[in-house]
Amino acid sequence: MTEPLDPSPAREPAGGPAAPAADPAPGDAVLVPLADIATEVGQASLTRRAFLGFGLSVAGGVAGAAVLGHLFPVFISAEDTVSPLIPDYNPKTKAWTFVVDTGRCIGCGLCVVACKEENHVPESSEFTRTWVERHVETTDGTLYVDSPDAGINGFPPESTAPGAAGKPVGSAFFEPRLCMQCADSPCTAVCPVSATYKTEDGIVLVDARRCIGCGFCVVSCPYGARYITPADEDTPASMPGVADKCTWCYHRINNGHKPACVEICPVGARRFGDANDPNDDIRTAALAAGAQPLHPEYGTAPRVLYLGPVLQEA
Prior knowledge:
Radius of gyration: 19 Å
Number of strands: 12
Number of helices: 9
Oligomer: single chain
Strand order of the largest sheet: 11-3-12
Number of domains: 1
Helix content: 10-25%
Shape: globular
Largest sheet: 3 strands, mixed
CATH architecture: 2-Layer Sandwich
Order of helices and strands: EHHEEHEEEHEEHEEHHEHEH
CATH topology: Alpha-Beta Plaits
């Protein structure tokens, strides 16, 4: 078993120094999170419909359609002045860490529903920022993995994986998946237009206005966490044909809230926090419990850490 991962995004990979971070913006521009653009956003949920208590409906106003039409950080001129919603928010001090406990997950699918509602992700299971897998090992030692409709509607009693029907089950667990927010992210390295970039607090995002939909980032992600948005009325940033993925609900976390999937989880299988904060219980969840990344051999230094039976499977 591998050693627990240090959640600091500055981890140096084996075999040499960390690859340089992708240039986040042209030299005459500065990166500004969406939440910093207008004070109206701070009190409004980015969902169009209230869902299980997640946020508020957005009233009409000057900033309404113009601001909420873009769910990702955007580039502005360096001369522009910005009044942050959280004046004391310092991204350079953050060590955001996401912990998934596969021993707790019950496969209810609420996390998938919450993500789609919060981020305007298309309903089709083909397009999803987070999904839940069921890993079943039969008594003959064969492993079967299924994720019907990305787990959004829960799971039937028997695995839907080809060949699994009727076989006696030895053990099984559910495994939530999402963007691993890799410290050494291949997606930022391959993007030819720097549309995929990294914020000062280490979150990998996509500037939909710059993305050309080439798909290089999609095929470069070893965790299968990216897709190209379809022509759909319910699409993140209202822009089809561009790359999309989980952002750890960046518009929420830099405004003092948890990601939507973390808030909705009824059993605490998803936990999120700042590992640099001595008062944040993520330190106990991640470090004291021995949380580890999936497939550390990929060399991407993922910042989503796992607990539970998935580590035994690896």
